[in-house]
Every structure is written in C-alpha cells, then in structure tokens.
Amino acid sequence: MRTQLEKYFQFEELDTSWHKELIAGLTTFVSMSYILFVNPSVLGAAGMDKGAVFTATALASAFGCLVMGILARYPIASAPALGINAFFAYTVVIGMKIPWQTALTGVFVASLIFILITVLKLREKIINAIPADLKFAISSGIGLFIAFIGLHDGGLIVANKSTVVGLGSLQTPSTWLTIFGLLITVILMIRKVPGAIFVGMFATAVLGIVTKMIPLPQGVISGAPSLAPTFGVAFKNIGQINTLQMWVVVLTFLLVTFFDTAGTLVGLAQQAGFMKDNKMPRVGKALAADSSAMFVGSILGTSPVGAYVESSAGIAVGGRSGMTAVFTGLFFVLGMFFSPLLSVVTSQVTAPALIIVGVLMASSLTKIDWAHLEIAVPSFLIVIGMPLTYSISDGMALGLITYPIFMIAAKRGKEVSAVMYALAVIFVGFLWILNVGH
C-alpha cells in the first residue's frame, strides 16, 4: 500500500520522501493555522457564531487541502482567504447592511459559477495564456507580498502617518522574537540543516514561552464547537440574490477568488519548479479542487476558500507532492481538537518563515526580460503592486491591463493573445466592480 502511494504521488520523480512531506505539511499548517482564529474573529464581527465559524474553517480547509493533494497532487493548501473575509464582514454585512445569511448565499452562488467556468476550462485557458515573464512577475510579487506580511506581523514594519510605513519599535520585546527567529532560521538554512524553517519556528516558540512573551496554553484538548448555527444556511436565502447590489457582491466574491487563486497557483508552481513550457500540469484538477473547496466552505458556513500563499513555506522545506497538502489537511482536522496548543503559534513565530520564503520566491525576478520596457513595466507593476495594494488580484490587474497597451506601443501587438486582450478588459471591469463594492 505504501509503495503504491509513493508511486501515485511520484515520490521518486519528485525526489521526496514521507519524512519530507510530513515536515512540509506541518510547516504549511503551522504557517497558516492563524486562520483558525482570525476567521472566526472577522466573521464574528458580522454576527456569525464564532464557534461554528471555527469548525467550518477547519473542515473547509481540510477538505480543500485533501482534494488538492489527492486529486491534483500539488503541495498547495487551501483555507478561507484573508481579505475577502474582511470584505464579507465589514463591507457586505456591516457596510451594505446585508444579513450574513444572505452574504453566505452570495458565496454559495459565486462558487457554483466558479465550478461552471472550471468545467468549461475557461480558468485553465486563462492561466496558460499568461506570458512566462508575467508568470515570473506574479511569483516574485507574491514573494514580496508574503515577506511584507511577515515583516508587518513580526512588528518590524508598522503603519506610519508621515511615511505610510516605517520601522517598528525595537523596544517592543515581541519584535526581538521575530528578529531571533529570522536570524536562527537563516543561519540554519545557510548551514543546510534539514527542515530549517520549521526548526526555526519551533525554536522561536520555545524562546517565546521561556521569556513569557508567549503564554503557556490553557490546555491541550478541547471539543470542536457545533456547526449548527451556520451549516446549510447558504441554501435558505437563494431568493435574496435578486438585486443589482447582491449581484455585485456575488461577482466580487467570484472575481477576487478567481484571480487571487490563479496568481497563487502560478506563483507556487513556479517556486516548486512544476511549470513546463509555460504551462502548469494538471492545472484543471487543481482548479477543480479549489472551486469545490469554495462550494463546500459556503455550505459549512465560511467566506470564500482559496489557495494559500503560505503553502510556499512547506515547498521551501522540501514539500513537492500532494502528500504535503494531505498532511496539512489532516493537521487541520486535528487542529479542531487541539486548538489550545495553536495559541503558541503567534504571528512572531510564523513571521520569519514568511520573510524567508519571500526571499526565495523573489529569485524569479532574474528570469524577467528587463531589457524591454513593454515587458519590464507591466512585470514591475505586478511585483510592486501586490505588496503595496495588499492584494494579489489588484497587483495582477495593474500588470495585465498595461501589458497589451505597451506591447501595442512597441509594435508587438500581434504577439499578444486574444485571451490577454480579453483579460485586460475584464480586469478594468474587475477594478470598477471592486470600487462599486467598496
């Protein structure tokens, strides 16, 4: 049985092992486990039951990871996406005064459309049509984006009214926890210590507990809260999706998830070395796994589910097969019952891993054709746009809208595919819809 699984997940071809995949899955889980606590807090602000959202988040994430790992065989994990959950709670429910039950139905309808365009292979055609240079830019941009998240989460970069952002206070003890984690992890990587990123996170957590910057967990095991308050609610309000305002909400859920996921999949595939002839193998299965996770998540009772950039942490420690995602999914299931232990995984513990992964992903910058402005400028807009707009999809929009314009200016318009021209128009509409939504 074990040998058959190794053949199915291509262990030999991918030069991986059970040990590598387990450590990678655990690293990915630890890097993204914060969503188990952040999502209930965000959606709780919209009036949803926090306990039910906790369980829905764990189960939807587990489902997404398992399907991605088993069906598409990629080391890419899924969970309710940050950003779109805030749009759900603060813009749709609180701002537009739409009941959370109706907003959840909006996610359900968007997921059905998502599945339809996946079956029709429209998403696959779009991803394959993006030029190689822009794919490298997307990968690099995601690297800068998650490094920025890590620097902010760790307290090294903070908001500043005078300069937008600035250096965090070195008088804050928890910031030194991040600095320790960053230094020890990089040293371990330079010394080529196996699983250096995970070891670094473990060492940082231990130091935090010893210095009392991270409190000891209140317990070890706890029961999973009931799903009853949110399960199946999305079915009961289909009739409420009957206004222009609600269709704008549905389209926003659809488009943000669509382009965030597309960018994340491309970036992670580039990082792991999966791209072949500018195409992502089994991309159709990866997209099917992603859209089905969004569908299941809406039924369980959570905001849109999508591929997570934190999967890059698992890839960085050697995860290459779908078993990485399978292990991550299993850890999400266990996480429901060991939630007290997750409290030691603070943002200062995961921040160094995100910063280092950002460094690794930024290596794709060397593969972009910087000699030609018609390619360099759209690529740069993608790379710089993702961290500065705090959005993968917005960063992609800046580059994919300008790419055909500059290619025409360079008299290379015939090299631009019809799909890329269509994408430019779609992204203009996408930004307009986002503006209307906000």
* Main β sheet profile: 2 strands, antiparallel
Helix amount, in percent?
55-70%
Strand elements, count: 4
Rg: 21 Å
Structural class: mainly alpha
The average pLDDT score comes to 90
The number of helical elements comes to 18
Number of structural domains:
1
Strand portion, in percent? under 5%
Strand order of the largest sheet: 1-4
Order of helices and strands: HHHHEHHHHEEHHHHEHHHHHH
Shape call: globular
Q: What is the end-to-end distance?
A: 52 Å
Could you list the spans in which at least 5 consecutive residues all have pLDDT below 50? none
User: Please, what is the oligomeric state?
Assistant: single chain
Could you explain the architecture of this structure?
The mean pLDDT is 90. The chain starts with a helix and ends with a helix. Helix 3 runs parallel beside helix 5, helix 4 runs antiparallel to helix 14 and helix 6 packs across helix 11. It is 66% helix and 3% strand. With 438 residues, it is mostly helical. It has one domain. It has a two-stranded antiparallel sheet. A two-stranded antiparallel sheet has the order 2-3.
